[in-house]
Amino acid sequence: MGLLRVTVEDQAEVTAHAATLFVTVEGETFVMGNAALERAREVREFAQALQAAGVPAGRLHVQGVRIASSSGLLAKNQKAEFQLSAEATPEQLPAVLGAVAAGRNTRLTRLDWQFDEFEASLPLAAQAMRKARRKADVIAGAAGQRVKGVHRASDTWELPGATMEFQPEGRMYALRAAGGPPLDVGVEYSATRTLRVTLTVDFMLEDPAQEPGPA
Q: Could you state, in chain order, the average pLDDT of each consecutive group of 10 residues for the chain (215 residues)?
């Protein structure tokens, strides 16, 4: 019995099922942690705008707080920048971006598209296995052999990252300052990336001529 190794690559387009937005909100009051969602007025107003856009409160989180102080002292009414993250579906994204653009003290710093690459890889890996088997049958037949079964198989997949970085002087803020439409922010409302799967299979071979004859 011999082994025949076959490697097959396949690919498919995968659409993001959600986006995580990272937003900075400038506040007049220094509040730590998720308490800022209720106690900091600017953060509370932004949270309410997101809820109006269909984003549940549980999908908005405070990632960090940064204070600006030239003296190095922490005052009672210290101004602060709150780094927030919010998760939205592609359908909610236009309204969410509109809420960010409409906020007087908010700015979008980053957007990460979320993909379910594992689920997307399953049918792609199965398709690659069918191709690998067909290829193995052809190669084995040309060598006078026959595929008996699978000895070992492994697969890997690759999905390019989908992160968008934003600067304060970007198009969103120029439009807002000029009084332009809040949704025309130069951001794609959906994302599609190419998922690539590589499957390697070791097939077991047998020689049909060595099969035992009838008793």
A: 94 94 81 55 87 92 77 61 92 92 88 93 96 97 96 94 70 40 53 94 92 60
CB 20 within 8 A of CB 85: yes
Q: Which pLDDT value is given to residue 37?
A: 54
Please tell me what DSSP assigns to residue 33: G
* Side-chain half-sphere CA neighbours of 21 within 13 A: 29
Give the pair of three-digit tokens for residue 9: 């690559």
Q: Contact, 203 vs 3, CB < 8 A?
A: yes
* Region 19-114: CATH code: 3.30.70
Radius of gyration of the chain (CA): 27
| Domain residue extents for the chain | 1-17+116-160+191-208, 19-114
CATH of region 1-17+116-160+191-208: 3.30.110.170
Count how many residues are written for the chain.
215
Alpha-carbon span 126 to 128, nearest angstrom: 5
